[in-house]
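Margin note from the TA: students keep mixing up input and output lines. Inputs are the sequences; the output is the structure of the whole complex. Example:
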Amino acid sequence: MIKETLNARRLLCPLPVIRTQDKVKQLKTGDHLEVICTDPGVMQDIPMWCRINGHKVLETKSGNHEYIIILEVGL
Amino acid sequence: MSKQRKAVALISGGLDSMLAAKIIMEQGIHVEGINFFTGFCVEGHTHAIREHDKVKPNRNNALWVAEQLGIKLHIVDVIEEYKKVLINPKHGYGAHMNPCLDCKIFMVNKAKQWIVENEFDFIITGEVIGQRPMSQTKSKMPIVSKQSGADDLLIRPMCAKNLPATLPEIEGWVDREKLHDITGRSRKPQIEMAKRFGIDDYSQPAGGCCFLTDKYYSAKLVDLWKAQGSKDYELDDVMLLKVGRHIRPKANFKLIIAREEGEGRFLQGYKKDYISMQCQSHTGPLALIDGPLSAEDVYFAAGIVARYGQGRHAEQVDICVTDKDGSERTLQVKPLSEKEVLKEWHV
């Protein structure tokens, strides 16, 4: 299993979602991806994108105006 | 057993494209959504930057629609390719800087490429005859089909009965009798259809989906092109046009002044790319300076920035000027009065 980090700071939605989507295409089922953002909208959009596309959100956290989502790549 | 047919629906996040996808799904077609991000989409969270907009639903409506429909959504970054459409639209601009017809042709063309690559059968749009004066008229719809290269693989379920039959109808993949004949700008038929489908939450039908249809945004874009002497832009330009108060007191520079805390935080992210100014002696907004400044201009700009802070009535305030490399200096300036900040400077 690979653990990767995606820097999506300063990007406004839907760009963090698009970058996440593109990164996930390079990963395999079970891999973990940590996405670090500054647009609070990602807290809604990335989990929604994950639900639609069959990926699992493992953790969301925020602090110091940063929003972090850790997801597990689905099938 | 007949082959499971697959269609991709252009999902904007509004009601029409949601209904169009639903109509085709009801006929047993496998539907997935596609959404193109040009950089000018209102669907982004630009509004979330501003503190007072936080009461609005903080969601991307295209994603939300896809989730309600239970379909996948593919969001495609077309920022670079879209420049050609906006800078030189073959069919011209609408009321503002909106190249709606070229935009529709471009997006349907991208969808056509997508269905070829992904082995889908046809394309769905939520277009309605007479809904939009520039791109959604009966005479323009064949232009979109033809010039996009989609031809009869493009179906508009909301108004299909008023248009020639497409391949999915001719081949019997889709029952034409179950399609619709909606025309005009009234939203009643769509609202009634939404009720029948049990859809009671959707993005406001009257809302445009593109900043380029906005008079004020378009004026800022034209100002940007005029100032740089060419019709070109980067994504950061597009984003910054959505944020702050834009003031151009001289041809060589403009100020982008945060209107509140959320915008100030957003502009902080650009301090490495622009000279910035903020009042030190009083509470005041962050401002970015776009363009070269002479020594005299620095004081002039600082006086304008001071006008928008709590020290606007003070005799003198301290303005911190930060260069792109992070070096700082403090200027003592007298804030410009309300009258001195001319109306025509506001872009």
